[in-house]
Design a protein that fits this description.
about 190 residues, mainly beta, Elongation Factor Tu (Ef-tu), domain 3, SH3 type barrels, 2 domains, six-stranded antiparallel β-barrel, six-stranded mixed beta sheet, 2 helices, 12 strands, about 10% helix, about 45% strand, cytoplasm, Transl_B-barrel_sf
């Protein structure tokens, strides 16, 4: 299994107890959807290694306590701390319309209803209060809130995200860079 065939499910945060269990963080909207998960790929030294799940117990806060097969002690579990967890993309439900998985839109062109083509999605930041799409625009990172009023839809075939940005959003990021450049040109008087 290769990285580009997978999506990152989460990561191992710590060990749990002395019998080899670990706590994992599930970076998903609905952790309960994964309570029947039978295996996962663990990234170790850049390689995706399959681990079979003996038991999984979903907790609050997108966490789960997991017992992997063949991991029977805290010493065996400790090297897994901070390792990313992956699942094959084909395990995801297919989405349509304005719904999308964050990992799938990286590299999509962003086209605004008024401004036209703007730039490419570079990453998506998941925050406690608001998820943000990062777009590369004229050498600047512009953050776009993930919001149904802003994100109008995606075209997976053309790798395009259609948006209707709030007036002035792009200016907030580009005007600040011009102001800094203008300040550098001014003379300093004693």
């Amino acid at each position: 299994m290769q990285h580009n065939d997978c999506f990152q499910l989460g990561h191992v945060t710590r060990t749990h107890g002395t019998k080899g269990e670990v706590v994992i963080f599930l970076d998903v909207d609905f952790p309960d959807d994964y309570e029947q998960m039978e295996s996962v790929f663990v990234e170790i030294k850049g390689q995706l290694i399959p681990y079979f799940i003996q038991q999984i117990n979903i907790q609050r806060g997108n966490k789960a306590i997991v017992k992997f097969e063949d991991i029977h002690s805290i010493e065996q579990a400790t090297p897994l701390i901070n390792c990313p967890l992956f699942l094959p993309e084909d395990t995801l439900d297919e989405l349509d319309g304005s719904k999308f998985y964050y990992h799938e839109i990286v590299g999509f062109r962003i086209i605004d209803a008024t401004l036209g083509a703007l730039g490419l999605v570079t990453t998506v930041y998941t925050m406690a209060t608001q998820d943000l799409i990062a777009m590369e625009y004229q050498g600047q990172e512009v953050l776009i809130p993930v919001n149904d009023d802003i994100i109008k839809g995606v075209n997976r075939q053309e790798k395009v995200m259609n948006v209707s940005l709030p007036e002035g959003l792009v200016d907030v990021y580009t005007e600040g860079t011009n102001a800094v450049a203008d300040d550098d040109d001014s003379e300093i008087e004693d």
